[in-house]
C-alpha cells in the first residue's frame, strides 16, 4: 500500500488513479494526518504531493523517520526542506508548463528512462540550495529540479510525473513503487468484489438493508454489489419524481427488477412533486423542494418496512476526499437524489468508498451491469427540474423529454456518444415568434447543451459538427409539437455552469 499525503490541489487524485492502475492499492490522506495513524497503515511507501502558495506551519517531518521510502512531488518538496534544509527559488517566473528535464538515469526512480523528459512543472519553483545528504538527480537547464538521498530512499521532484502529458511519468511512478518500495501488483477489482461481498455478508448477517436507487452509476453499482452479498435482504427504493428523462424509469425497473431480480420498490410520486413545484420559479427553491420531497417519500417507504438496520450509499472515494476528510461525515448531502436526512437511525454500508469513478465503472461491468448504466453521464439529483427553467409544468417536461431524446439519439447516430462528456437539452421559460406554412407561431425554444470536462469543475462547449446540429434542430422542430426554435449554448464553464439552473 502507498499512502499519499495531500497538500491540496488537484494532483493527489490523478496520482491515486495512476497508482491503482499499476495495481497497487493507495489511500489519500491530508498532509497533516497523525503520524501514528500513518504508521499503523503500514504503507510500503509515502508520496507527498500538492499545489499551493500557502505557507504551512504544521509539516510533520517525522514521516522521514519511519524508515519508509518517501517521494515528494511539486509543492510536497517543502517537507524535505523543512526536515533537511535547503531552499527553493521563485525566480524563473513562468508559471506551470511542460519543460524538458534532463534526468540522471542512475537514480532508481529514473532507471530505464530517456535522458530528456517533458514534464509538467511550476517554473517558479526550483531547488536553489540542495539539502545536506541529497544529490541532484534532474536538471532543467542549470536549475536543479529533482534530488535524491539514496541511503534513506527519499526523493524530491519539482515536476509532476502523474500529470497526463508528462513523458514516461507513469514509469517514474512505477519505478518508485516497484524498484524503491518493492510493492506487489496485488490490487485487482475481482478480488475487491469477492472481499466486499464477504464483508457485507458478515456485517449484515440476518438483518436487512435499504438502498435509495437513482439509476446513476454509483448507486446502481453499490446496489448490485450488496445484492450479490445479501440477496433479498436488500430492499431498493426508486423514487419516480416525474423529473426523469424519457424511458429512464422503465430502464431502471427493467435492469434491477427483471435482469438482477432485485427487491425493488418503485414509487410513483410524480403528482406530489409537480404539485409542490407549482408556481415556483426560483432555481434554489426548486432544488430545495425536490430534495425535501424526496426525503419525505423515502421516509414514508422506509416506515412501511420493518427490521431495516443498514442503509446502502453509493459514496465513492472522490466524495470522501472532496468532503475534506472531516472524519465524521454521516450521509453526504448532495449524494443521490436530493440527499438523505442525516438523522436516520441506520448504519451505513458504503461498499465503493475506496474506489475512483473509473474503478466503480469497471466493478459495474464485472458485475454484469450494462454499458448504458455503467457509462451514464452525470445527471443532477433534481433531474429535469433544473432543466425546465422557471416553473416546472407537465407541458414543458413533456416537450423537453422528447427533444432531449432526439438530441441523444442523433449524437449516438453520429458516433459522438463517447466523445462528448455530457450533453442534454433544456427548455427556457420563454416563447418566441416563428412561422410555418405562412402561419405565425408563438412557441417554445429548446436549448442544446454539450460540454467536455474532466471533473465538472471547468468545462468547454463541445464542437459538434454543424451538420449534426442542423439535423437535430430540424428533427426537434418537426417532431416535437410546440417547439419552433433550437439554440446551441456556446459558453464554457466558467463563466457559465454546465446546467442552466
Ligand atoms: P454545474 O451546473 O454546477 O454542474 O456546472 C456540474 C456537474 O454536476 C451536475 N449537477 C448535479 N449533480 N446533483 C448532482 O448529483 C445536483 O444537484 C447537480 N447539479 C448539477 C451537472 O449535471 C454537471 O455534471
What does this molecule look like?
It is a single chain. The chain is an alpha/beta fold and 501 residues long. It has 3 domains: 2-180, 3-Layer(aba) Sandwich (Rossmann fold), CATH 3.40.50.880; 192-374, HUPs (Rossmann fold, 3-Layer(aba) Sandwich), CATH 3.40.50.620; 393-489, GMP Synthetase, Chain A, domain 3. It has 14 helices and 22 strands. The protein has helices at residues 11-21, 35-40, 77-84, 169-180, 189-204, 217-230, 248-259, 270-277, 283-304, 317-322, 357-366, 371-374, 394-413, 466-479, and strands at 2-6, 26-30, 45-50, 70-74, 87-89, 96-103, 116-122, 126-129, 135-140, 143-149, 154-157, 159-160, 208-212, 234-240, 263-268, 308-312, 347-349, 422-426, 431-436, 439-452, 460-461, 483-488. β1 (2-6), α1 (11-21) and β2 form a beta-alpha-beta unit. α5 (189-204) packs across α6 (217-230), α8 (270-277) packs antiparallel against α9 and α13 runs antiparallel to α14. The longest helix has 22 residues, at 283-304. The chain binds xanthosine-5'-monophosphate.
Features:
501 residues; alpha/beta; Rossmann fold; GMP Synthetase, Chain A, domain 3; 3 domains; 14 helices; 22 strands; binds xanthosine-5'-monophosphate
Please summarize the sheet with the most strands: 10 strands, mixed
Under CATH, the topology of the largest domain is which? Rossmann fold
Radius of gyration: 26 Å
Q: What is the total tally of β strands?
A: 22
Classified in CATH, the superfamily of the largest domain is: HUPs
How much of the sequence is in beta strands?
A: 15-25%
Spans of at least 5 consecutive residues whose pLDDT stays below 50 are 325-338
> Kindly, what is the distance between the CA atoms of the first and last residues, rounded to a whole number of angstroms?
42 Å
Report the principal-axis shape.
globular
* Average residue pLDDT: 91
Amino acid at each position: 500500500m502507498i499512502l499519499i499525503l495531500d497538500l491540496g490541489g488537484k494532483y493527489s487524485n490523478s496520482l491515486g488513479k495512476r497508482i491503482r492502475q499499476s495495481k497497487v492499492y493507495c489511500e489519500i490522506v491530508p498532509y497533516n494526518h497523525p503520524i501514528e495513524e500513518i504508521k499503523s497503515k503500514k504503507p510500503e511507501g509515502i508520496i507527498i504531493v500538492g499545489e499551493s502558495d500557502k505557507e504551512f506551519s504544521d509539516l510533520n517531518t517525522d514521516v522521514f523517520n519511519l524508515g519508509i521510502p518517501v517521494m515528494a512531488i511539486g509543492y510536497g518538496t517543502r517537507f524535505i526542506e523543512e526536515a533537511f534544509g535547503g531552499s527553493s527559488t521563485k525566480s524563473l517566473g513562468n508559471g506551470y508548463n511542460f519543460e524538458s528535464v534532463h534526468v540522471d538515469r542512475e537514480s532508481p526512480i529514473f532507471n530505464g528512462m530517456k535522458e530528456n523528459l517533458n514534464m509538467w512543472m511550476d517554473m517558479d519553483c526550483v531547488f536553489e540550495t540542495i539539502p545536506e545528504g541529497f544529490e541532484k538527480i534532474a536538471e532543467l537547464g542549470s536549475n536543479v529540479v529533482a534530488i535524491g538521498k539514496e541511503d534513506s530512499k527519499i526523493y524530491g521532484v519539482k515536476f509532476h510525473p502523474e500529470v497526463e502529458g508528462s513523458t514516461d511519468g507513469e514509469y517514474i511512478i512505477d519505478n518508485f513503487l516497484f524498484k524503491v518500495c518493492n510493492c506487489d501488483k496485488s490490487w485487482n477489482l475481482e478480488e475487491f468484489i469477492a472481499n466486499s461481498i464477504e464483508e457485507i455478508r458478515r456485517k449484515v448477517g440476518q438483518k436487512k438493508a435499504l438502498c435509495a436507487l437513482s439509476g446513476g452509476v454509483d448507486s446502481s453499482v453499490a446496489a448490485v454489489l450488496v445484492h450479490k452479498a445479501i440477496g433479498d435482504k436488500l430492499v431498493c427504493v426508486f423514487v419516480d419524481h416525474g423529473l426523469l428523462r424519457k424511458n429512464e424509469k422503465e430502464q431502471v425497473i427493467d435492469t434491477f427488477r427483471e435482469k438482477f431480480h432485485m427487491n425493488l420498490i418503485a414509487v410513483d410520486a410524480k403528482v406530489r412533486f409537480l404539485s409542490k413545484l407549482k408556481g415556483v420559479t426560483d432555481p434554489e427553491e426548486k432544488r430545495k423542494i425536490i430534495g425535501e420531497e424526496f426525503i419525505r417519500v423515502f421516509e414514508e417507504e422506509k416506515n412501511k418496512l420493518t427490521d431495516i438496520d443498514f442503509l446502502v450509499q453509493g459514496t465513492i472515494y472522490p466524495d470522501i476526499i472532496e468532503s475534506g476528510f472531516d472524519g465524521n461525515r454521516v450521509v453526504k448531502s448532495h449524494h443521490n437524489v436530493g440527499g438523505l436526512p442525516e438523522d436516520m437511525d441506520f448504519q451505513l454500508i458504503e461498499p465503493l468508498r475506496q474506489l475512483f469513478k473509473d474503478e466503480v465503472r469497471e466493478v459495474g461491468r464485472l458485475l454484469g451491469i450494462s454499458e448504458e448504466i455503467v457509462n451514464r453521464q452525470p445527471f443532477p439529483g433534481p433531474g429535469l427540474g433544473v432543466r425546465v427553467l422557471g416553473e416546472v409544468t407537465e407541458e414543458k417536461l413533456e416537450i423537453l423529454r422528447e427533444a432531449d431524446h432526439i438530441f441523444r439519439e442523433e449524437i449516438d447516430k453520429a458516433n459522438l456518444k463517447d466523445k462528448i462528456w455530457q450533453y442534454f437539452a433544456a427548455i427556457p421559460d420563454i416563447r418566441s415568434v416563428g412561422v410555418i406554412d405562412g402561419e405565425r407561431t408563438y412557441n417554445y425554444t429548446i436549448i442544446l447543451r454539450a460540454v467536455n470536462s474532466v471533473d465538472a469543475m471547468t468545462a468547454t462547449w463541445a464542437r459538434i459538427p454543424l451538420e449534426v446540429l442542423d439535423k437535430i434542430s430540424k428533427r426537434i422542430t418537426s417532431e416535437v409539437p410546440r417547439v419552433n426554435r433550437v439554440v446551441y449554448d456556446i459558453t464554457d464553464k466558467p463563466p457559465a455552469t454546465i446546467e442552466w439552473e
